Amino acid sequence: MSEKKMALVLGSGGARGSAHVGVLKVLDEHGIHPDAIVGSSMGAEVGGAYAAGVSVEDMAAIWRSAHFGTVVKNFLPTIPWSGWCSGREKIRFLRRLLGDVTIEELPLTYAAVATDLESGLPYPITKGPLARAIRASISVPGLLTPVWIDGHLLIDGGVSDPVPVNVARQLGAEVVVAVDVLVRPEEVRLTGIPIPEYRERILGIIRRMDAAAAADGATRRFYPSVFSVLFQMSTVFQKRVSELSLRVHPPDVLIRPDFSPNPPCYSDVKTGIEAGEAATLQMLPRILEILNSG
Predict the structure, then answer these.
(1) Pairwise CA distance, residues 111 & 40, whole Å
(2) What is the DSSP code (8-state) at residue 102?
(3) Which of 60, 89, 243, 293 is most buried (most C-beta within 10 Å)?
(4) Helix, strand, or coil here: 173?
(5) Do 10 and 20 contact (CB within 8 A), yes or no?
(6) Among positive and negative, which fits the CA dihedral 146, 44, 85, 227?
């Protein structure tokens, strides 16, 4: 279709990474095959599978077959105290899916972006075992133990570079199509234990902080759980880093799937795949225009 070197950048986003499968499906159906794939976190996993020859149909089947039990199995607690889980089951899954292929053996250029825990900088992995590179890129801090590669202690790529457009440019891409699937902070509905007013505390009554109270002009105040606070902190941080990075290193085309009103979760990713398809179809004319332009 085009002699321009095209890179597809697949961003981090957990279960929302299922949208990447929908993106690849639409591109495949229209004969658009990237020369390079750069992925961060879940984007590294989906992109790595595609680069290794796993069909879009097989990837969709794997995602759709996921359920609560498979997720728990991948994240069983372990003895190492640098993470909740050692990631052994995850690396076994990746090796069953990908085999022992190395990045150098892939038919297209590939990079899995991780974060160097000591320097805090993005660390693109462009050589060595593909499964190990993906495992490093998806090492969510506190959940999966970090991975040592070539003297670097690596964690999740989404920490430092959620949508690594600049890495694709460094690999020689002339056209970059990026996919951002991050959660927007305003999408998260925070809840918690209501904080009663002074008079209500005296009376031992906690008034419900519901829509009716809000309609009366009452201030909705509550104490969220520590997990809610940490999750929202991560959401704000990643989205802010992503926005700043995309401003400095803008892609030629940016695909942002709309996950409302039913965002995907690991046990139900159908809406994620469909959102990826819809967003890519919307941007398809622009992609074809750029690829076919002189």
Answers:
(1) 9
(2) B
(3) 60
(4) coil
(5) yes
(6) positive
